Amino acid sequence: MIEQDDFDINTRLHTIVRGEDEAAMVESVGLALVKLPDVLNRLKPDIMIVHGDRFDALALATSAALMNIRILHIEGGEVSGTIDDSIRHAITKLAHYHVCCTRSAEQHLISMCEDHDRILLAGCPSYDKLLSAKNKDYMSIIRMWLGDDVKSKDYIVALQHPVTTDIKHSIKMFELTLDALISFNKRTLVLFPNIDAGSKEMVRVMRKKGIEHHPNFRAVKHVPFDQFIQLVAHAGCMIGNSSCGVREVGAFGTPVINLGTRQIGRETGENVLHVRDADTQDKILQALHLQFGKQYPCSKIYGDGNAVPRILKFLKSIDLQEPLQKKFCFPPVKDNISQDIDHILETLSALAVDLGGTNLRVAIVSMKGEIVKKYTQFNPKTYEERINLILQMCVEAAAEAVKLNCRILGVGISTGGRVNPREGIVLRSTKLIQEWNSVDLRTPLSDTLHLPVWVDNDGNCAALAERKFGQGKGLENFVTLITGTGIGGGIIHQHELIHGSSFCAAELGHIVVSLDGPDCSCGSHGCIEAYASGMALQREAKKLHDEDQLLVEGMSVPKDEAVGALHLIQAAKLGNAKAQSILRTAGTALGLGVVNILHTMNPSLVILSGVLASHYIHTVKDVIRQQALSSVQDVDVVVSDLVEPALLGAASMVLDYTTRRIY
């Protein structure tokens, strides 16, 4: 593979001692240490790039360090579950510069006293290849390796290695895995184990069970990387204990079963099911039944496809004249580890999408709730135009995020109507957004951006925004009411968002406050929304205007401008008694709804959000004083100070979830 990539190969070293046991691993390292000094003296490299955690890499790092050659180590700081951990961390202590793949790995390197300024969080270089892999002829690759009768998503890729710290158990686990795969009866591509101690015994197990001649199995020693990508991307499941399963395969959302302790401590996406104690065939078989054929959101925990440009920039920044002696930053570690160097510092961010009745907005939102950049377009009227515009805007924003030094962790979408957040589906939209029922938003966005995607109702998003960035921060129980074109809301109970059994919780705008009130858009009448929404105020404003009772001195409505809620509010401020009465009635209806909420939920805070909130707040408080039980009259009602609750709430779904994803 190296030869195929046209590298200029200066030297070939044969250092692997056959034997596949502990002694052979030690002898291989020793043989490399004997041969490397002559090569390094001849090459005199400025920088030695060492990758990963294999024992042969340890020999290379040891030689370079003792010969005063600068070392750049890729993929340090990670945690797995074998001798690889010790080797990886040993290379870290020998290396002068570090390129890591995840935020946790960066934290580990800092905890290991490595110099903050010499650590680059770049992502995994293999993701640059994975996320750009677009082979439409993947079926020919599948047929070549598994047979002509195999379909996409209907086969398994198995890759299992020995655990050098517990060889006997890992051989037994491999035997159980093969038994489970035979029982599961699906076509399976089995790759031979690596050359670590114990691999020879694992191969014997394969041959004892006749895997190489079994009609359901294809046993191979090597698959070219480009073809392997397509095989795992379109597999029904991957099983084993390879780091590939917990790292690279997440880029495609392929289900993975991770067996045993070899990868314990690794960060994983939700596509990985861990079977730590794989000590029975039934456990493994049950895991296969649970995982096979599923499709998960694409995970970018280990990279976003831009690692190589970052690494090149980092390499170019290295000053070859600076002292070679390593510096260690001993505890206490600084609380704020962010560096003021553009090739090191990246802002953890989310793409937030707000689907409103009029506008479609996409924003890059930082961990602190800062809107780094916002894009706005009119919301198209048809499904096809709308979904294409969402994809286009998100792709453009993701590309811009790289230039703005923002690391996009995922996409959060706020939309009107009833939403199933577990599946990322809009079940039933509001009348303001047409052709938007039973719409799967997660799949097209996840497939296009290779990012995890979250979707929720705009009222719930407003509550999430308050919980993370607003006045609900740190509160156990509170309720948010949105006053805009419609009336919506969200309920936080015991720090968690309430969705309800059919995802219909917190439809607060449809609390009935009058048995004979005006018709509501939901088909009922007397709802809060029928009194206090922007649509309701617009309806009343038009009535007054048609009767020539809206405009007062100092007011005018241009002929080409539609009469709306803002005109009613302006008239009320200028002394129009009828407009004032309508606003008072609307505020009273909202206040009665809040009283019902106080009596039902007994929250510690009610937050009014949206453009109409400040116009209703005083009336709502008056109604609470007059109508509520004395035990809830002290509950505070406030106006939100968040400017963009829908976008911030959409972002919070991403930021709260992705930053705690360590299994």
From TrEMBL:
GO terms for molecular function: ATP binding; hydrolase activity, hydrolyzing O-glycosyl compounds; metal ion binding; N-acylmannosamine kinase activity; UDP-N-acetylglucosamine 2-epimerase activity. Coiled coil: none annotated. The active site is at residue 458. Its EC number is 2.7.1.60, 3.2.1.183. Keywords: Allosteric enzyme, ATP-binding, Cytoplasm, Hydrolase, Kinase, Metal-binding, Multifunctional enzyme, Nucleotide-binding, Phosphoprotein, Transferase, Zinc. An N-acyl-D-mannosamine binds at residues 418, 430, 458, 507, 510, 529. It is found in: Cytoplasm, Cytosol. Pathway: Amino-sugar metabolism; N-acetylneuraminate biosynthesis. One of its GO terms (biological process) is UDP-N-acetylglucosamine metabolic process. It comes from the Eukaryota. Pfam families: Epimerase_2, ROK. It catalyses: an N-acyl-D-mannosamine + ATP = an N-acyl-D-mannosamine 6-phosphate + ADP + H(+); UDP-N-acetyl-alpha-D-glucosamine + H2O = aldehydo-N-acetyl-D-mannosamine + UDP + H(+). GO terms for cellular component: cytosol. Residues 5-316 form the UDP-N-acetylglucosamine 2-epimerase domain. Its main location: cytoplasm. Zn(2+) binds at residues 510, 520, 522, 527. Homodimer. Homotetramer. Homohexamer. The hexameric form exhibits both enzyme activities, whereas the dimeric form only catalyzes the phosphorylation of N-acyl-D-mannosamine. NCBIfam families: NeuC_NnaA. In the C-terminal section; belongs to the ROK (NagC/XylR) family. This is Bifunctional UDP-N-acetylglucosamine 2-epimerase/N-acetylmannosamine kinase.
